[in-house]
Amino acid sequence: AKLMKQYMEAMPPLRPLTFVLKYFMASRDLNQPYTGGVGSFMLQVMIVSFLQHRERDAFNYRRPSLYNLGALLVEFLELYSTDFNFITTGLSVRFDGVYVPKVAADRKKDFWQPQRPFSLAIENPLEPTADVGKASFRMSTVQRSFEVAFKVLLSHVTEPAVPAVSILASTLPPTE
Q1: 3-state secondary structure labels for all residues of 102-162
Q2: Is the pLDDT of residue 63 over 80?
Q3: What's the CA dihedral at 78, 124, 119, 43 to 10 degrees?
Q4: Residue 88, exposed/middle/buried by CB under 10 A (0-12, 13-18, 19+)?
Q5: Neighbour count for residue 28 (Cβ, 10 Å)
Q6: Which of 29, 34, 21 is nearest to 136 (CA)?
Q7: Is the CB of residue 57 less than 8 Å from the CB of residue 51?
């Protein structure tokens, strides 16, 4: 909690993206690690990694973000649906965020799962040999749900745009 609080102070988009994406995952029953989904800590580390790479200049030079939350959400969904190579790549948020090969000699034992090569390997920033993503055995389902949401949102913001009363409601079920 202390670490995430530090990240939230340093990266203002982290909090709203976390709320939206946690609700997104819960609405699809993909939010529980014991059922193969993505837990809160894993999701937050994924968002931190995304922001580190996406907002590196703004973060490093303490400049305001040039991107709005809607664009960040779409780009997060794009990264983890179509751009990120789950089979070969893991991520670390230490040292300002890096992508790492899962089968590197110093990581293979802890981060490569030959029975589940599609898993997302995430180094625990508090315990670097622990894989935060190890329990999430439904990553292909998570990836596909991100892909569908990305394409739906993109259909509302690119030409010819599909009209919608609420763009976000097209991927998140509204509540009272």
Answers
A1: CCCCCCHHHHCCCCCCCCCEEEECCEEEEECCCCCCCHHHHHHHHHHHHHHHHHHHCCCCC
A2: no
A3: -40
A4: middle
A5: 17
A6: 34
A7: no
How far apart CA 34 and CA 37 sit, in angstroms, is 7
- For 142-165, how does the pLDDT look when each residue is reduced to its tens digit (9 = 90+)? 999 999 999 999 999 888 888 888
The per-residue DSSP string of 48-76 comes to: HHHHHHHTHHHHHTTPPPSS-HHHHHHHH
Indicate the residue type of 176.
E
Q: Under 8 Å CB-to-CB from 162, ≥6 apart: which residues?
A: 155, 156
Up-side HSE of residue 87: CA atoms within 13 Å toward CB? 1
116-141 residue pLDDT tens: 888 999 999 999 999 999 999 999 99
Name the one residue in this structure whose structure tokens are 């055995």.
137
Strands 89-92 and 121-124: parallel
What is the pLDDT, as a whole number, of residue 17? Answer: 96
